[in-house]
Description:
Radius of gyration: 16 Å
Number of domains: 1
Amino acid sequence: xxxxxxxxxxxxxxxxxxxxxxxxxxxxxxxxxxxxxxxxxxxxxxxxxxxxxxxxxxxxxxxxxxxxxxxxxxxxxxxxxxxxxxxxxxxxxxxxxxxxxxxxxxxxxxxxxxxxxxxxxxxxxxxxxxxxxxxxxxxxxxxxxxxxxxxxxxxxxxxxxxxxxxxxxxxxxxxxx
Length: 177
């Protein structure tokens, strides 16, 4: 049971855009589209976790943006991106929400940007999805919740990279879709 005593059915699908990443299923667009079409009528929400994008950049490249938009257009509600080792933009698109990269979580890299990360908390209801943004810092390979000043800094930086239409929500730390 979730919020408001509503049962939810959801599906998480995990893919990589790299054919060389053997730990995660390689993204076959036509297969994914078929899977989404098959489950769309029996689930309330579809969440895709995808390993994609260029490393060490705060903004995704056009190929990643186009793929994200396509996934939302075919029925995905939320995309959780990983791989760039940096936080990347957040975008609302056609009723969906795209986290291009949540950064590292537990990883052996040094540097301010590699050690700035984020968790997201979702509350699902039949009408909408509420999202809390929880900035993190990684110290000695262990994530911790960001301090108040670190939280403010992360949300300001993230809002700067993201589209102006979502800036106020990012700064507040709460997004509604």
